[in-house]
Model the fold of this input.
Amino acid sequence: MKKIAIVILALLAIGTITQAQCRAFTKNRVLPNLLGYIQNENYNAALFMEGDESEVLMTFYGGKNYRLVVMGHPVLPDVEFEVLDTNDELLYSNKNAENKTVFDFRMANTQQLKVRVKVPDTGGTLVHQGCVTIVAGHKE
Amino acid sequence: MKTKILSVLMVVVILAGYMNLTSCSGCQKTKQDQPAMDNKKDSMDQARVEQLKKIFFNIPSPVEMASLIKKEGFSYDKKLLNKVESVDTYMGEAKQAVNLGIYGADLSYASIFDQKQECMKYFAAAKKLATAMSIDGGINDSIVAKLAEQQENRDSILKIVTSAYADLNGYLKENNRVEVSALVISGGWLEALYLSLTYAEKSNGSAIKTRVAEQKMVLENLLNYYSSFADRPVLNEMKSDLLAIQKVLNQVEITAQKTTVTKADDGVMVIGNGGKAEMKDDTMKALMDVVKQIRTKYIS
Done:
């Protein structure tokens, strides 16, 4: 019984460590890109596999400058991201900007925008899995 | 005894290897393993999509509301904030989480107005709550020490506060306490709304009133997020409170046209749809009444 408890505890600890790697990736690799901007307090990072796609609806205030950073772990192919309005009108795609991970923009008025993120499927023999993080920062 | 410990460790190592294959931050799996999983692929994909919905969520930070209050020329009012002395009276995870968010918004407000001593007090209260809730990430002694060192630099304090709360949010999400994270964010939003409403009432037709009206959109994001959690009792009370606020905010009229993308003189992309949020005075009064009532319930 004691042994089982030890195994379970050890596994829980390992699970936490592996999940925490996304937080470390975000802190060390992603957040330095927000230099000069005040970081948004929401945390958006998760493990993605090739072919995975996700979307987040965000509200941006009018008159402010924003920076959006979308980055994937280097083991993944270049992460694609798009910014769309609520009618699904495409406003920006990093595919048209040499797969840049940073997008700077200014809001003329307050508006909800969607950020769609995709890890392309390379079709290779190996299926890669890694952290993908979306962070936003603002400045006046 | 040694053999027993070794055999237990071996099991741990083997299972850890398996877990690393499924959940490391950057790793590979061979596609040879996939056919056996194909039958379950659709349901697994759906489960992953649902899981991602619970992680990927974003609303503006309370600091954005606080900075507008300062920009509009208003002064700091300590009396508006939740008392730090109340921290020991908050029992139960839901109430503690909401107040952790409320203290976070108060902290942002104090930071924007350069209230360094107040920041230290509010950070200490937030840390106390985080400790009571067994949250080790984000708010800890090292952050408190960092904050003490940065007493003279407002931007650094702001950076410490926002990154501490973002890290706390990340810690909760990574430790399967996503509901607690939702409550912390809701508490922060509620407090920022309360502070903005107080200033909006003092002013006449200011930008703050418009910003309050725009919370109709932010609340829609927040409630969408709540709908990704299937019947979690810990969220029920806050969800019904948010719905009560939404009932009033639904009276706000938002007009918008087609979104345009232009380039400013400095080369930055400008996005806009000419949207305008308008709120009548009686709606603002009704909003203040309901927000005050809900806030009082959580802070007392």
In short: Confidence is low (pLDDT under 50) at residues 9-17 of chain A. Residues 77 and 120 of chain A are 7 Å apart (CA to CA). Helices of chain A lie at 2-30.
